[in-house]
Design goal:
This protein has about 775 residues and is of the alpha+beta class. The chain is built from 30 helices and 24 strands. The chain is about 55% helix and about 15% strand.
C-alpha cells in the first residue's frame, strides 16, 4: 500500500465481507487487524478478499512473537529506505545531466522548455555559460540529443520508477486507482509523447506541432518522488523507534546459578525457576523475585518513573530495567513472551495497528480522490488547449501533468497513523500504555475523571491500624481467623491483614470453600469454622448487627482507615482497621487534573466516612462511597447520560465493569489482569500524575492529527488549482511539473515530520530532559 486510496480500498473490501465484525487497515505498518466470526468467514477467505482488492497478504506465523514481528518490520523498512535512496540519487543525477543536455533543444525549438519555468530559468542562468564551455553540445543534431535523453530516461522508468507503473497496472486490473495511477499517467504520458517525438517526429511536424520532448521532466519527477519516498521511509522508521528501544533493553546473556556455579548462558536458555545473579550496572534479563540482596533499580524505561526505586527480598524486578547499586539474586518468574517487557511490546504493536475515528474523514475523501484528480487533469488539458494560442498543446500537457503529479493522497493516509505510532511510543516513555488510536482520540475530549480509592489514590499497600475485639472474641482470634481466610485473597486489604498476622509469628491455616463477594468481602471455612470478613453489608447478609462496634468503627473510619468486620460461626467477634495512606503525589495530581479543566470524583466501595477522610487529604470534594460494582457502573452511566465524557481510573476486579463502561478506562499497572484487560490505557507508574500525562498526551496527539489532516487537505486544495493554471491569467505563471513532483514528495514527508515532533514533547509538569520540548 502506498497511499490513503490503497488503504481505503483494502479497508472497504474487508468491511463488506460477511462475517467481519471490524477491520483496521494501517498504512504505516502495512497490516490489517480483523475481528471476525469463524463460523462465517475464515482467515484464508480474508486473504482472498484482500488479494481481490489488488494487494497481497499473508498470515503471521503462529509462533511469531511481537519482538520478532517488529524486527522483521524494521528490517523491511530499512531495506525499503536504502532501495529508495539509491534509486533517488541515481535518478536525480541523471535528471541534472538530462536538464543540461535538453538546453540546446530549446534553441532549436524542439523542446517544451520555453513554457517550463524550471527549464526557462536554467536556460537563462546556465545556458549561456554552458554554450561557451561546451560548444559541441550546442552544435549536436537535435535527433542525437533526443536519443541521448531517451537513453538516460529508459533506466529510470524501467528500473528506478518501475514500481509506480506496475502498481498502477495492478490497480487498473482491479478496477481501482491510487497514487501510482496519478504518477504513471503523468510521467507515462510525458514519456510516450517524447518517445514518439524521438522515433517518429513527423507525426508532430506534419500536424504543425513541434516535436517536443519531456525526458528531463520525467526523470526529475520520478527522482523527486523517489527522494520523497526515501525520506518518508526514513521518517516512518523513526516512528517505530520506541518499540525498537524497548526490544533492545533485554540483554542477550544471563548469569545463572547451575550446580552451585555462576555461568553465563544465552537468554533463551533461561527457564522459570532459575536463579539469576545481577550485578550493579547490569540490565535485568528476566522478570523475577529477589531472593537475596537489596538494590536501587532504574525502571524509567518501562514505567516512566525518573528516580530509582528500592528493591529487596520478596520484591519483583522487571526485565530490561537497570540494577543501579547492589548485587541481587533473582528467581525467574517469567521468560520470553510472558515478561512485562514483551507484553508491553505486544500491546504497543497492537495499538499502532489500530485506527483513530478521525481517520474516517480521510477515508471518505480518498475513496473518490484519484478519479476526481484525473477528471480535473482532463478538464485542465482541454481548457488550456482551447483557450491558449501560444504553444497550446505543450502548455496543456504541462498543466495536465502538473495536476496529476501534485495531487497527493499519501499525506492523507499518513496523517493519523503516524501520529498514533509516535504517541504510543511517547506514552510508553511516560509510563502510559495506550491500547490504540480510538482511546487516544476519546481521551482528549474528557471532562470528568472518576478515581477509585484503594490502589489508585492510595498506595494500594495498606497496613493494619487497629484490631478491636467484641465481647464474643479476642484480638488474637480476630486477627488469626481473618488472616487465615484472607490468605486466599488477592485484595490489598486482605493482603495487609495476612502480612500483619505473619509478621507477628502466627502460622496460618488455609481456608476451604473460599469465596470473594464483590464489594462486600470474603467467606470460607477455617479449621471447619465458618468465617466471614467484610463490610457492614456482608454482616447484614448474615443477620449480624455491627452496632456494638459502631463507636470504634466510626472513630477509625474518621481517621481514614477501612474497617472490616470479622464473624466466626455466625457471631461478630471483632473488627480490623486497615489504613491505606494516599500516595505522596495524589494531591498534586488532583490539582493538576483540575487545572486541565477536569472534574475529579472519588468512587469507592469503602464506607462513607473512610472515603471522605481520604478525599479530604487529597483535595477531592465529590465523593461517592459504599458502592458495589454494579452501582459503580450506574454512577459512570449517570454522568454519561448527562453529557459528560468520563474516564474511570482503578486497579481492582471490582473496578473492571466501570472501566469498560467509561469512555476511557485507565488502569494502574499494579492492578489485576482482569482490570488491565478492561482498560483502554495502563499506567505503569504507581502515580496518579500519569493520568494527567495521559490526558495531556492525547490532547497533543489529536491536535497533531488535526494539523496533519489540515495540511494534507489544504495542500491539495491549494496545489491542484495552482497546477491547473489558476495563476496564469493574472500573473502569467504556470507551475512546472518538476516543482509539482517536489511539492508532492515533501507533502507526505512534512506530515510524518510533524508527527515526529511528538517524540520531543513532554508534559509541562514533568522534568524535561535536556534538549526536549515541553
Amino acid at each position: 500500500m502506498t497511499c490513503a486510496a490503497c488503504q481505503g480500498r483494502v479497508q472497504r473490501s474487508l468491511d463488506r465481507t460477511p462475517g467481519v465484525e471490524s477491520a483496521s487497515v494501517n498504512l504505516m505498518t502495512h497490516a490489517a487487524t480483523v475481528q471476525f466470526d469463524p463460523a462465517a468467514v475464515s482467515p484464508n477467505r480474508l486473504i482472498e478478499v484482500i488479494e481481490a482488492s489488488g494487494y497481497g497478504a499473508t498470515l503471521p506465523a503462529v509462533d511469531e512473537t511481537a519482538e520478532a514481528a517488529e524486527r522483521a518490520l524494521d528490517h523491511a523498512q530499512d531495506r525499503e529506505y536504502r532501495s529508495y535512496r539509491t534509486k533517488a540519487l541515481i535518478s536525480l543525477a541523471l535528471g541534472a545531466i538530462a536538464m543540461l543536455v535538453s538546453m540546446p533543444l530549446m534553441a532549436t525549438g524542439g523542446h517544451h522548455g520555453a513554457v517550463d519555468p524550471i527549464m526557462a530559468w536554467a536556460d537563462r542562468v546556465i545556458g549561456g555559460p554552458l554554450a561557451a564551455w561546451f560548444p559541441a553540445l550546442y552544435a549536436a543534431p537535435a535527433d542525437l540529443l533526443r536519443w541521448s535523453l531517451l537513453g538516460m530516461t529508459v533506466p529510470v522508468v524501467a528500473w528506478a520508477g518501475r514500481h509506480f507503473y506496475t502498481r498502477a497496472w495492478t490497480a487498473l486490473r482491479h478496477r481501482t486507482a491510487n497514487m501510482n495511477t496519478l504518477v504513471a499517467l503523468g510521467t507515462g504520458a510525458a514519456f510516450l509523447l517524447s518517445l514518439v517525438a524521438t522515433v517518429a517526429p513527423d507525426v508532430y511536424l506534419t500536424r504543425g506541432l513541434m516535436a517536443d520532448v519531456y525526458y528531463e521532466a520525467v526523470i526529475l519527477i520520478l527522482g523527486f518522488l523517489l527522494a520523497g519516498q526515501a525520506l518518508e521511509a526514513r521518517a516512518k522508521r523513526q516512528t517505530g523507534r520506541a518499540i525498537r528501544s524497548l526490544i533492545d533493553l533485554s540483554p542477550k546473556q544471563a548469569r545463572v546459578i547451575r550446580n552451585g556455579l555462576e555461568i553465563e548462558v544465552p537468554l533463551d536458555q533461561v527457564v522459570v525457576g532459575d536463579r539469576v545473579v545481577i550485578r550493579p550496572g547490569e540490565r535485568v534479563p528476566v522478570d523475577g523475585v529477589i531472593r537475596s540482596g537489596t538494590t536501587a533499580v532504574d525502571e524509567s524505561m518501562v514505567t516512566g518513573e525518573p528516580l530509582p526505586v528500592s528493591r529487596g527480598p520478596g520484591e519483583s524486578m522487571i526485565g530490561g530495567t537497570i540494577n543501579r547499586t547492589g548485587s541481587v539474586t533473582l528467581e525467574t518468574t517469567a521468560i520470553g513472551s510472558a515478561t512485562v517487557l514483551a507484553r508491553i511490546v505486544k500491546l504497543m504493536r497492537d495499538a499502532q495497528a489500530t485506527r483513530a475515528p478521525i481517520q474516517r474523514l480521510a477515508d471518505r475523501i480518498s475513496a473518490v480522490f484519484v478519479p476526481v484528480v484525473v477528471a480535473i487533469a482532463v478538464v485542465t488539458f482541454v481548457a488550456w488547449f482551447v483557450l491558449v494560442d501560444d504553444a497550446a498543446f505543450v502548455r496543456a500537457m504541462t498543466a495536465a501533468i502538473s495536476v496529476l503529479i501534485i495531487a497527493c493522497p499519501c499525506a492523507m493516509g499518513l496523517a493519523v497513523p503516524t501520529a498514533v505510532m509516535v504517541a504510543t511510543g511517547k506514552g510508553a516513555e511516560l509510563g502510559v500504555l495506550i491500547k490504540g488510536g480510538e482511546a487516544l482520540e476519546r481521551a482528549q475530549a474528557l471532562d470528568t475523571v472518576i478515581l477509585d480509592k484503594t490502589g489508585t489514590i492510595t498506595q494500594g499497600r495498606p497496613d493494619v491500624a487497629a484490631v478491636v475485639a467484641a465481647e464474643a472474641g479476642s484480638e488474637d482470634e480476630v486477627l488469626t481467623m481473618a488472616a487465615a481466610l484472607e490468605k486466599g485473597s488477592e485484595h490489598p486489604l486482605g493482603e495487609a491483614i495476612v502480612r500483619h498476622a505473619e509478621a507477628g509469628g502466627r502460622v496460618l491455616a488455609g481456608a476451604e470453600q473460599f469465596e470473594a463477594i464483590a464489594g462486600k468481602g470474603a467467606v470460607g471455612l477455617v479449621d471447619g469454622r465458618a468465617v466471614a470478613v467484610g463490610n457492614a453489608k456482608l454482616m447484614d447478609d448474615y443477620g449480624l448487627r455491627v452496632a456494638p462496634l459502631g463507636e470504634d468503627a466510626a472513630l477509625l473510619a474518621g481517621q481514614g482507615a477501612t474497617v472490616s468486620y470479622v464473624a466466626v460461626d455466625g457471631q461478630l467477634v471483632g473488627l480490623i482497621a486497615v489504613a491505606d495512606r494516599p500516595r505522596e503525589s495524589s494531591r498534586a495530581a488532583v490539582e493538576r487534573l483540575r487545572g486541565m479543566g477536569l472534574e475529579v470524583v472519588m468512587l469507592t466501595g469503602d464506607a462513607e466516612r473512610t472515603a471522605r477522610a481520604v478525599a479530604a487529604q487529597v483535595g477531592i470534594d465529590d465523593v461517592m462511597a459504599d458502592r458495589l460494582p454494579d452501582q459503580k457502573i450506574e454512577e459512570v452511566s449517570r454522568r454519561q447520560r448527562a453529557g459528560r465524557v468520563v474516564a474511570m481510573v482503578g486497579d481492582g476486579i471490582n473496578d473492571a465493569p466501570a472501566l469498560v463502561q467509561a469512555d476511557v478506562g485507565l488502569v494502574m499497572g499494579s492492578g489485576t489482569d482482569i482490570a488491565i484487560e478492561a482498560g483502554d490505557m495502563t499506567l505503569m507508574r504507581a502515580d496518579l500524575d500519569a493520568v494527567a500525562d495521559a490526558v495531556a498526551l492525547s490532547r497533543r496527539t489529536v491536535r497533531t492529527m488535526r494539523e496533519n489532516l489540515f495540511w494534507a487537505f489544504i495542500y491539495n486544495v491549494v496545489g491542484i488549482p495552482i497546477a491547473a493554471g489558476v495563476l496564469y491569467p493574472v500573473f502569467g505563471l504556470q507551475l512546472s511539473p518538476i516543482i509539482a513532483s517536489a511539492a508532492m514528495a515533501l507533502s507526505s514527508v512534512s506530515v510524518v515530520s510533524n508527527s515526529l515532533r511528538l517524540r520531543g514533547w513532554w508534559p509541562r509538569s514533568r522534568r524535561v530532559p535536556e534538549g526536549a520540548v515541553a
